[in-house]
Amino acid sequence: MNFSEVFKLSSLLCKFSPDGKYLASCVQYRLVVRDASTLQILQLYTCLDQIQHLEWSADSLFILCALYKRGLVQVWSLEQPEWHCKIDEGSAGLVASCWGPDGRHILNTTEFHLRITVWSLCTKSVSYIKYPKACQQGITFTRDGRYLALAERRDCRDYVSIFVCSDWQLLRHFDTDTQDLAGIEWAPNGCVLAVWDSCLEYKVLLYSLDGRLLSAFCAYEWSLGIKAVAWSPSSQFLAIGSYDGKVRILNHVTWKMITEFGHPATVNNPKIVVYKEAEKSPPLGHLAFPPPRAVAGPLTSSESKYEIASMPVSLQTLKPAADRANPRIGVGALAFSPDNYFLATRNDSIPNAVWIWDIRKLRLLAVLEQLCAVRAFQWGPQQPRLAICTGGSKVYLWSPAGCVSVQVPGEGDFQVLSLCWHPSGDSLALLSKDHFCLCFLEMEEGVHTAFGQRGDCT
Amino acid sequence: MGDWMTVTDPESKTISQYTSETKMSPSSLYSQQVLCSSIPLSKNVHSYFSAFCTEENIEQSISYLDQELTTFGFPSLYEESKGKETKRELNIVAVLNCMNELLVLQRKNLLAQENVETQNLKLGSDMDHLQNCYAKLKEQLETSRREMIGLQERDRQLQCKNRNLHQLLKNEKDEVQKLQNIIASRATQYNHDMKRKEREYNKLKERLHQLVMNKKDKKIAMEVLNYVGRVDGKRGSWRTGKTEASFFLRNEDEMYKILLNDYEYRQKQILMENAELKKVLQQMKKEMISLLSPQKQKPRERADDSTGTVISDVEEDAGELSRESIWDLSCETVREQLTNSIRKQWRILKSHVEKLDNQVSKVHLEGFNDEDVISRQDHEQETEKLELEIQQCKEMIKTQQQLLQQQLATACDDDTTSLLRDCYLLEEKERLKEEWSLFKEQKKNFEKERRSFTEAAIRLGLERKAFEEERASWLKQQFLNMTTFDHQNSENVKLFSAFSGSSDRDTPTLHSRSRQKKPHGVPSGSPVCTSKLTKSLPASPSTSDFCQTRSCASEHSSSISVLNITPEETKPNQVGRECAHQKWSMSSRPGSQEVCYSGCSSTYTNSHVEKDDLP
């Protein structure tokens, strides 16, 4: 495992291009595009103000920089550095901006969610979509980029509109039986739309592409409901994390619940491996794992390793404040591995732990208990490898073979707040508050075995 | 008599007093006085009795006594008067008889009194015991009653608590209901408020929209250097009413196509899954049939077996199915048939398995021990064999190693080693010679000792023989003196010895005895004897003969000595044996110890055995 040198960064804006060739990062008002492998600067663009949002077009030819404060969007072309485009939303303001799936359209949401403007880079045409709903996840494209589903709110009722992305024609428009729609998400196959209600009510509705209601699911009433939803990459399962600290998995045939994963604070099953992160004093012997550069790094941050805890294990729980909004309870993050085999979840009342479930056997496989609260986790796009960061100077990797904790080298404390995988799964960008670096996972034979061994022994 | 009077109850006294009062006794006055004083002290009584009869009132007292006695049913003290006028005379005999009777009576009374007293005591103690018991029981009763009261109290309290808890539960339930109602009402209120707010918000939004969007904000614009081409390379087409409709239709078509594709894909998957499952089912069926049919052959031969008919049905079905399975299996009737047949077979299989289970459990219960033992024996044998093999292999390895080492040693430096070895050999030879001579000397000493011992033993034997003969003669005399008993005895002995002779191995104690007898019975001591006694030697064919002869000999000797073996008699034998033991311990050899254990006491044989062992 190798680390690149540390580069400057602001607002955690650092993204790999979809084709994996480039890496775009923002430093204040400058946009830097590097070669993803050599990290040489290929282009440097200067925006009008501090960049607040960054997005690659699907064909990796354009980069969108949103300057929400000024209500501006600037688009840069990688092929023609002199080409530029500036979209001004004027007094209507701007709160969100995103690419259309073809990479030739930009969807801008105005302030107060008054409307969504669809700008085209090919023609002068501008389309408006009225009444978009201000919600957690109100806009979703199918994976093939054909359709856009949009949550709307009209006359105190929730609607979903399905647009054809090629010409922004409305295809279907139907009302949903929700009190206060909170999010929508297409299944990866693009044929089923999951719609869920706000946390006040547990309700998931599944619609077909043509607007038919396929099924509705409600696990319980009178209590806080859904917190997070995730589709499996095969569209076979829909995992629903809720405020009762459970994940419920629906199947795609009957849309009924297959199983329920609880997240108890004590794990007492010898089949489950609980990896507990433990600090260790640094000068104990030489280590094969963090490379020499890591040793040269600061001694202030102590190294850590994983230990397999003996059963029963009681995990550190957080007592939620009952009188505040958005209590820290329930399953707030969940993600399927790209091969559908694993599901990683985090229960917000046990913030230090990541739970990894085996979907083939529908049971808990492993629990990783970190020393700090888990900030983010993301599956590697090619292999079932989970990268976790906790806001400390380490990055954690789990694979079915085991798990490792890797110290990020560099001067000062590099606090990993976020991370994103290279599309090939070979490297990983680690983002801190004002720096980023790349972590290369050279999965050659030797390193791979070391990884495995390390995982086994720790 | 006086004592008797004193211990009687006052009541009976008064009665007697009463009876005596009817006839005025001369001393009645006095006696009454005594009674009135009611101090029946023995002294007083004594004095009273002594004052009963005086010189003057003999006649009166006699008559009084006579009266008294007659009233009590005794014969009169006076002689029977022949005539009226004649004065009655005192009959001394009658008096004495009376006295005697009175005394007897008194003794009886005393006895009775004693009995009564003891009974009284017993009863008293019984009474005490019972009273104690009663008290204890009463206490117990009290405590249990108290306990019961306590329990009742607790029960009452618990019931109270229970009632309270019930009440609380009810309250809680009510509360929950109330809260739920409140939540519901709040929710509706909240929703209502939300709607109102949202409406206001929408109005504002609309207004804002109008204000912002309709102002023709010049700022809202896109500056672009030049428009880029579309991804698909097509050029954007202008939309008209017509084209829009066609676009819409095209989009619809596409959407349905996608949906159809999805459904087709899913159907294909399901079909594949189904086909696989069918395959598995078919295979299972086949295997079931093949598994079940040979086992059921026998029961079917019995004709009346019901399962057999079922099986044949099933097989027919199966045949049909297999024929039909060539065609598509998804037909409903076929499906039904398939499921039915599978169900049937499953039932049969289940019953069969259950039967087998039962059998197995039975067999397990019955034959558990035997099998286990057998297997263990086998196992042990096997392990023994293996151990032996291992031993052999080890030895082989050792010898090989030794040979190798020798070879190596010889190979490395032949000359010096051979010389050295020679030296060593010479030294050793000398040492061995010395040892040999020492050993020979020792042996000589041993032999000497042994000879002296044997001589002593022989002498002892001779002495014993003489003693025995003496004893025999003495016993003979005795025997001749005694007649009947001894005869029987001798007969018994004869039987006994005969029995011992016939079943040699059943009575080893007897044998030892008879063997002990041997030396003086047959003093010459044939060499056959040794062959019997030393089991390590090959058994000679004459052993059985020997047994018989020995029994005969013992019979003979017993007939002479009548076999009254007293401890004194056996002692010399024991001494002899001890001698032999000591000797053996001195010249103990592994082979000869067995001989020692065979319980032989005859010195002669011992010496003989030893002779055998000598080189």
UniProtKB/TrEMBL annotation, chain A:
InterPro entries: Centrosome-WD_assoc, WD40/YVTN_repeat-like_dom_sf, WD40_repeat_dom_sf, WD40_rpt
SUPFAM superfamilies assigned to the protein according to its UniProt record, in alphabetical order: WD40 repeat-like
Gene name tied to this protein: WRAP73
Protein name: WD repeat-containing protein WRAP73 isoform X1
GO CC terms in record: microtubule organizing center; MWP complex
From TrEMBL, chain B:
Polar residues composition bias: residue spans: 527-543
Name of the featured protein: Afadin- and alpha-actinin-binding protein isoform X5
UniProt cross-references to Pfam families, sorted A to Z: ADIP
Region ranges (Disordered): 292-315, 500-543
GO cellular component, one term: centriolar satellite
Compartments, record wording: Cell junction, Adherens junction; Cytoplasm, Cytoskeleton, Microtubule organizing center, Centrosome, Centriolar satellite
Family stated for the protein in its record: Belongs to the ADIP family.
Keywords for this protein: Cell adhesion, Cell junction, Coiled coil, Cytoplasm, Cytoskeleton
Organism encoding this protein: Odocoileus virginianus
InterPro entries found in the cross-reference section: Adhesion_Centrosome_assoc (IPR052300), Afadin/alpha-actinin-bd (IPR021622)
Gene behind the chain: SSX2IP
Lineage: Eukaryota, Metazoa, Chordata, Craniata, Vertebrata
